[in-house]
Amino acid sequence: MDITKKVTALAVGLGLVTLSACGSSGADGSSGSGEGSRTVTLVSHNSWAVSEDVVAAFEKRSGFKLKVLEDGDAGQAVNKAILTKDNPQGDVFFGVDNTLLSRALDNGLFQPYEAKGSDLILPEYRADEDKHRVTPVDTGDVCVNYDKAWFEKKRLTPPKTFDDLVDPAYKDLLVVENAATSSPGLGFLLGTVAEYGDGGGWEDYWKKLKANGVKVVDGWEHAYNEEFSGSAGGKQAKADRPLVVSYASSPPAEVIYADPRPDTAPTGVAEGTCFRQVEYAGLLSNAENPEGGKALLDFLVSKTFQDDMPLNMFVYPVREGAQVPEEFVKFGPQAKEPRTMDPAKIAENRDQWVKSWTSLVLK
Predict the structure, then answer these.
(1) Within 10 A of 20 (CB to CB), how many other CB atoms are there?
(2) Smallest Cα–Cα separation from 248: which of 229, 227, 228, 265?
(3) What is the β-pairing status of strands 174-177 and 243-247?
(4) CB 331 within 8 A of CB 252
(5) Which residue spans within the chain are E strands per DSSP?
(6) Range with the poorest average pLDDT among 26-40, 174-188, 259-273, 297-311
(7) Residue 230 near residue 146, CB atoms below 8 Å
(8) Are strands 135-147 and 243-247 parallel, antiparallel or unpaired?
(9) Counting beta carbons within 10 angstroms of the beta carbon of residue 174, is it exposed (0 to 12), middle (13 to 18) or buried (19 or more)?
(10) How close are the terminal C-alpha atoms of the chain, in Å?
(11) Are 93 and 83 in contact, with CB atoms under 8 Å apart?
């Protein structure tokens, strides 16, 4: 699952619905992009969420009507976009992250465009700066979350680091997502590679994690809402795993969607297990409405959108000076020292790492 889809699943688990707005047709009555069309189409994974007034502001300012096509999880959406690149479904693709970026670039998914305002994007999130084929939009940390009440009841200190997770004290407590099918699962795998190295170190770590009873499920929604005892959904499902791979923004989501709101988050983050993801958008090659696509990319890095984004998609903005919600600062701050990895290294090794991980952990 991608960075942002988690919030929709969490809201559904709490009986709520996130606010998601998009135009369905152009001002001229057209239903898609095309030469002279006033509709611009955004293709995304199943995560797009933005306030209606912000969409209205974009449409008024640009003169384009926004249409959104959601197309599965991040990996599925990227693969489909690549397969249809000669006749794309839309004009802009949003949601390819740094774990999959090279796949999109190597397959010619995007054409160059430097969005207006991109000079205000924080340097640590920029990529492909020589060609400007992608624009950073948001960032988030994949981290192990823990159930505070469970650990307090057991009088056990929650884990803080990757090393802690293989301690026998935490045997049979952790659930993770499949690295071959899940974005956070892949992010967590990459975090262990960054921590222990790719000369056999990360494999040895996963052998220890497997011996310590780690449970693997296909995706984030299953892990978080059915297996993790600390989430609202997990409590309803009587889940019994107090550790889960999720996001640093999951604790504030648990607070914001609770009714009544608690004074403190019921879940916490093991900061020494975080891997930083960045999501990008790009102007699709062969886009039918490139001018509309450029206007949309400008919008995605505007302060209006960047300020609105956190509480709709539960990710952090990437623009300098964008507002970070108080709930994020209090309950889900970004990791001070997240694990990171050069996209080029991910590109060179990702498929082999996933293959090795699958053979080691799932067989």
Answers:
(1) 18
(2) 265
(3) parallel
(4) yes
(5) 39-44, 65-70, 92-97, 110-111, 135-147, 174-177, 215-217, 243-247, 267-284, 316-317
(6) 26-40
(7) yes
(8) antiparallel
(9) buried
(10) 23
(11) no
Is the peptide bond prior to 260 cis by the omega test (within 30 degrees of 0)?
yes
The residue behind tokens 């209205």 is: 56
What dihedral do alpha carbons 306, 143, 106, 342 form, nearest 10°? Answer: 100
| pLDDT of 344 | 86
Task: Give the pLDDT band (50/70/90) at residue 71.
Answer: confident
Closest-CA residue to 21 (of 41, 1, 50):
50
In 3D, which of 105, 116, 142 has the Cα closest to residue 319? 116
Report whether 104 contacts 285 (CB < 8 A). no
Q: Would you list the DSSP string of 173-200? A: -EEEE-TTT-HHHHHHHHHHHHHH-TTT
How far apart CA 309 and CA 303 sit, in angstroms, is 10
Assigned token pair, 344: 């080029």
Burial label for 34, CB within 10 Å (0-12, 13-18, 19+), is: middle
Work out the pLDDT band at 36, boundaries 50, 70, 90: low
Sequence length of the chain is 363
**Of 75-84, 93-102, 227-236, 345-354, minimum mean pLDDT range:** 75-84
Let me know if 129 is exposed, middle or buried by CB neighbors in 10 A (0-12, 13-18, 19+).
exposed
pLDDT tens across 297-352, in order? 999 999 999 999 999 999 999 999 999 999 999 998 999 999 999 888 998 999 99
Q: How far apart are CA 262 and CA 225, in angstroms?
A: 19
Separation CA 74–CA 97 (nearest Å): 8
Which of 65-79, 93-107, 180-194 has the lowest average pLDDT? 65-79
CA distance linking residue 125 with residue 271, whole number of Å: 20
